[in-house]
Design goal:
By secondary structure, the chain is an alpha/beta fold. The protein has 16 helices and 16 strands. The radius of gyration is 23 Å and the shape is globular. The longest helix has 32 residues, at 204-235. The protein has an 8-stranded mixed sheet, with helices on both faces. Strands 13-12-11-14-15-16 form a 6-stranded parallel sheet, sandwiched between helices. A two-stranded antiparallel sheet has the order 5-6. The protein has helices at residues 10-21, 33-40, 51-61, 97-112, 129-142, 164-169, 181-194, 204-235, 239-247, 268-281, 287-299, 301-311, 338-347, 360-366, 377-381, 416-422, and strands at residues 2-6, 25-29, 65-68, 79-82, 87-88, 93-94, 117-121, 150-154, 174-178, 199-202, 318-322, 351-355, 372-373, 386-389, 406-409, 425-428. It folds into 3 domains: 2-197, NAD(P)-binding Rossmann-like Domain (Rossmann fold, 3-Layer(aba) Sandwich); 212-297, Orthogonal Bundle (N-(1-d-carboxylethyl)-l-norvaline Dehydrogenase, domain 2), CATH 1.10.1040.10; 300-428, NAD(P)-binding Rossmann-like Domain (Rossmann fold, 3-Layer(aba) Sandwich). The structure holds nicotinamide-adenine-dinucleotide. Nicotinamide-adenine-dinucleotide binds next to α1 and α4. The site of nicotinamide-adenine-dinucleotide has 26 residues, from α1 and α4.
Length: 431
């Protein structure tokens, strides 16, 4: 089939290579000129393990994937997936400007299309958005009727950056929120080609809510265990042992219960904040979800508090921050805990040296002046008065890197027993 993917970020590119590898002709549309050019040269514009080589094969050898800036070039596409970003870098919150723009441009494409086309919304949108905003925009710009002349479905994405290719090859479920049966049937056929995982068909609002509820639940687990971890620390208990004990209970499990510096990234914080806002607009105060955000707001800053307790004033102290990406194996720094920690250190008068294996370029565009970017972890650690580990990259796990240093670990990156033997001082954010 001829397929179009609008938006070539983490979700768009992973979706594109998955479909192209299955023999479809994929056209990626992105308004970012340099991104389009990189993709057409077989170069991955972002860091995601395994994506680079797949993209290279599909663009260069097989020529089954191309990127364009002009929506006119997707008039032949039978299915158009919308994967544009819904994250505002300036507010760290949801912003639907991109998706409304994409819907109006796709509407113009639909107007010229001679036969049925399906539009699939993969971007995360608050329940009701496809019905109330996206479909009216598509209808306005196409002068066609959804369900009759074109189809619409919501297909939320659950990939995790860092293991996105693996996830896209064997997802745990596919959710299809259909506007009409033909839309659902067309998308289900396509999904079955890619994987044999369970497919759940719902209406559009329910599909949108499944994505938000999933992210809200995951965020709740993290803030829950961080709160328990903060309590455990005061009681002299190791929260990681507590999780081992809790996790044996099949009703609980041990996934997503790693106490530490809190969650970041372009999804959990923004989706939770959007759900809280939506609830408020409807006259309901989502108290539990508000608290999840509040616990998270403070969690990363606990690293700085611990450093202050140990070093006294941070004025003129040299602090190394290891890890800028919001989690390992990605270059994504959006709403990363390090972006809370570093400004606070600067505010306290510290000199800040930073290092991340892949996210330095992205971080340079965001971090304030005065931060020193180092060539390696040891370069950052050398001559520092204290080391804060904010992201648990594998290369930070070698305790011998920290010989004689004061280390505050935000992610249980180090083995506490070994770390205590080599470090001058070792403390975890909640252990
Ligand atoms: P991203 O910011 O990495 O990429 C979005 C891309 O869309 C960019 O390349 C941008 O240039 C392009 N774009 C924006 N507006 C456009 C327009 N009108 N026309 C053409 N291109 C346009 O985004 P992402 O992280 O891939 O996320 C996409 C959506 O998927 C978001 O709604 C996000 O919440 C959701 N999601 C993301 C993840 C994740 O791990 N990143 C996981 C699940 C769901």
């Amino acid at each position: 089939m001829n397929l179009a993917i609008v938006g070539s970020g983490y979700v768009g590119l992973v979706t594109s290579v998955g479909l192209a590898a299955n023999g479809h002709h994929v056209t990626c549309v992105d308004r970012d000129h340099s991104r389009v050019s990189l993709i057409n040269h077989g170069i991955c514009p972002l860091y995601e393990p395994g994506l680079d080589s797949l993209l290279q094969t599909l663009t260069k050898e097989k020529r089954s994937l191309i990127a364009v800036e002009d929506y006119n070039e997707i008039t032949d596409s039978e299915v158009i997936f919308v994967c544009v970003g819904t994250f505002s870098e300036s507010t760290n919150k949801t912003d639907f400007t991109n998706i409304i723009d994409a819907a109006s441009q796709i509407g113009r494409v639909l107007q010229r299309a001679p036969d049925y086309r399906l539009v699939v919304i993969k971007s995360t949108v608050i329940p009701g958005t496809t019905e109330e905003i996206i479909i009216p925009t598509l209808e306005k710009y196409s002068s066609k009727k959804a369900g009759r002349e074109f189809g619409v479905a919501v297909n939320p994405e659950f990939l995790q950056e860092g293991s996105a290719i693996q996830y896209s090859q064997s997802p745990d479920r596919v959710i299809i929120g259909e506007h009409d049966q033909k839309a659902g049937d067309t998308l289900e056929r396509l999904c079955h080609e890619l994987s044999s995982c369970p497919v759940l068909r719902t209406n559009m609002r329910t599909a949108e809510m499944i994505k938000y509820a999933t992210n809200a639940f995951l965020a709740t687990k993290i803030s829950f265990i961080n709160e328990i971890g903060n309590l455990c620390k005061n009681l002299g208990i190791d929260v990681y042992e507590v999780v081992k004990g809790m996790g044996c209970d099949p009703r609980i499990g041990d996934k997503f219960l790693n106490a530490g510096a809190g969650f970041g990234g372009s999804c959990l914080p923004k989706d939770l904040a959007e759900l809280v806002l939506k609830a408020h607009q409807m006259g309901y105060e989502a108290q539990l979800l508000r608290s999840v955000l509040k616990v998270n707001d403070n969690q990363a800053l606990r690293l700085v508090e611990i450093a202050k307790k140990r070093l006294g004033s941070l004025e003129h102290r040299v602090i190394a921050v290891l890890g800028l990406a919001f989690k390992p194996n990605t270059d994504d720094v959006r709403a990363a805990p390090a972006l809370k920690v570093i400004p606070q250190l600067l505010e306290e008068g510290a000199s800040v040296k930073v290092y991340d294996p892949v996210a330095m370029r992205q971080a340079k565009m965001i971090l304030p002046d005065g931060v020193k970017f180092c060539a390696s972890a040891s370069d950052a650690i050398n001559d520092s008065d204290g080391v804060l580990i904010v992201t648990e990259w594998d290369e930070f796990k070698d305790e011998s890197l920290y010989r004689g240093k004061l280390v505050i670990d935000g992610r249980r990156t180090l083995n506490p027993e070994k770390a205590r033997q080599v470090c001058r001082y070792y403390e975890g954010v909640c252990w």
